[in-house]
Amino acid sequence: MANGLGTGPSEAETFWTEFLRGLKARGLSGVKLVVSDAHTGLKAAIARVFEATWQRCRVHWMRNALAHVPRGQHTVVAAAIRQAFSQPDREHSGATWRHIADQIRGRWPKLAALMDESEHDVLAYMAFPVQHRTKLHSTNPIERLNK
Is residue 38 classed exposed, middle or buried when 0-12, 13-18 and 19+ CB atoms within 10 A define those classes? Predict the structure, then answer.
């Protein structure tokens, strides 16, 4: 990621790159998936340090998504989007995701655009075994542990 001037990594990316390199130097290996919020510096550092897939926290993404919808519609829209999360595999999940985005595009174009741009990041965990998915889609389990 370039900073705003196109002259190199941002300060945040440099920080996260060094942080992750430190973890790697201390023995962290075999990283296949990293789950985080959508911090661009962290995302770029993950790609640079680990050859791992990045998963945007589904819970945090949903909060961002629902900000594009009137409060009275949150339950219905969230239920529609969750249909994509309950599919048996990545292929079906992606097809459902795109179908939902197309259905809401006329009424909530900003939400549909967010879905278009974030599909891969939000559904990355679907490429992993079913028995692991409930622990992979969100940062909430680690947040609870850290409390």
Answer: middle
